[in-house]
Description:
Blueprint: H1 15-22, H2 28-42, H3 47-61, H4 65-93, H5 95-113, H6 119-148, H7 153-182, H8 184-199, H9 201-206, H10 235-238, H11 242-271, H12 276-304, H13 306-325, H14 330-359, H15 364-393, H16 397-416
Helix pairs in contact: 2-6, 2-7, 2-8, 3-4, 3-7, 3-11, 4-6, 4-15, 5-6, 5-8, 6-7, 6-15, 7-8, 7-12, 7-14, 11-12, 11-14, 11-15, 11-16, 12-13, 12-14, 13-14, 13-16
Amino acid sequence: MTSVLPPRVRAEPPLPVRLLTARGIFYGWAVVFASFVVAFWEMSTYNPVLTLFLLPMTKEFGWARSEFSGVVVVSTLISAAVAPAIGALIDRYGPQRALVLGTLTLALALGALAFTFSIAWFYAWYSVARIAAYSGTGIANTVVVSNWFTRRRAFALGITASAWRLSSWVLPLVLATVVAAQGWRMAWLALAGGVVLLAVPTPALLTIRRPQDVGLEPEGQPRSGHCHGGPAWALREAVRTRALWLIAVSGFCAWFTMASYNLHLMPYLLDRGFPAEIAVGALAGMGFVSMPATVLMGLLADRIGVRPTYLLAFVLAALGATFIHWLAAPWMIAAYAVCYGIAFGGFVTLQQSIWADYFGRGSLGTIRGVTLPVQLMGNAFGPFLAAVAYDLTGSYDLPFTAFILALLLGAVTMGLARRPRRPLLQPLVVSQEVA
Length: 435
């Protein structure tokens, strides 16, 4: 039986709600905008940004690449450990508090990284930053946007996810300039300042937990007594389905490769003799391509379904991985950026929308909190194992081959992950979903 909390309808909707509603604009788009701003600055803890600090920090402190990359493992494992508890708290107290508290914590941690003096300090504060972004604002964004949209959920989540792609294009270009001119410490401070100025106030002013709290319905649908977007699965029901774990494994495969390429692509290209401009351009190009892809793949998923769109993303990713592994000419870098950019955009959108699509919104934060650690294991161990392989062999040949195989495994598991159905004899609990 799904537990149901009554909507907390306010006596009078907040001013932003009244202003947009009076102009015929669904307020859910304001919620999407707030989530977009937060997601943009979450990229501060992602590998396309971290890779810019790899060479200057290892050079200054004398760290090996595996020592530096180990921060990804440690921080991600800690994030995975706390994700179930944070997901449950988001279901209980709402995503707005998680977004505000998470962005404040993120700003503090990024600022502290500017004062790094030891490997322990670096690991500690980077772990705090990743907890805030991965297990805090990341889950909260998925929950709040899913609350406001049903039929166009993948499209709305695609818009939110496009912020990651925009920032993976913009931030490396800006920060590379800052690092070259002012050093890596100033680059960390610049990230902290951006979070404080933009990512903290936007959700505080615009985010509302769910439309029913202000007398609205998802996507402006007429009020009704039944749930929207399919039945809500409780956690104890969802974990018994094969689909949940197949989706989790496919997420592991996707992030095992994506996180690794984000961190190691730039040093890989530099090791192959390409100039720094091409290496940075490859990262920026992938981000540029994946930015519209997050939205377009969301539109495609709303039209043909999440699972076939997800399969397409894995095929494109494997093709891009093949280009970069057997790199023989500059055009193959561009081909990788296009193929993997589209796939990357699809991954970040579809990994958010598929959970609500398959299991409803009633316990979405809790379900994401339990399944996110599997995905984060790929994020943690992919970059680290690639660094260890490089330190041992002086080459990326072995890990880049493993990435292609992982993408093929992800395609297989997603192909098997059909939408779960309750037993015919089990009564369907129809309720007003909350999250």
